[in-house]
User: Which sequence fits this backbone?
């Protein structure tokens, strides 16, 4: 069921955590949810859902191979997708969340900055 903007408080904003080639225990999932709330909670009224994907790029070969992709679906605005790759989960998540927060903030601010239009289609306060 799709929710409308502003109906769910920050802790109840739908957040899906998906993994591919990585095992996350309950502590890791709780950490991800807590960090999502810290970074994106203030924009909860504009967010429909958040998906966090953690993917092991190189598999058993090792190296800098954890890809963290965060997709934020905004109400009435384009979705935000940010990803970062690192050797460990926490740095990959932190950097991806920082980018997601910045992009969501800019997108929401742009929406608020749109000029108000009159019924005739002109901006309010503008001459003929």
Assistant:
């Amino acid at each position: 069921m799709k929710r409308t903007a502003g109906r769910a408080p920050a802790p109840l904003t739908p957040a899906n955590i998906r993994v591919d080639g990585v095992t996350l225990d309950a502590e890791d999932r709780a950490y991800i949810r807590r960090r999502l709330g810290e970074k994106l909670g203030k924009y909860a009224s504009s967010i429909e859902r958040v998906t966090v994907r953690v993917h092991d790029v190189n598999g058993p070969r090792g190296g800098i191979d954890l890809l963290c992709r965060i997709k934020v679906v905004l109400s009435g605005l384009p979705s935000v997708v940010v990803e970062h790759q690192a050797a460990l989960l926490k740095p990959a998540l932190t950097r991806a969340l920082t980018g997601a927060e910045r992009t969501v903030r800019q997108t929401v601010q742009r929406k608020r900055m749109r000029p108000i239009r009159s019924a005739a289609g002109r901006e309010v306060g503008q001459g003929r």
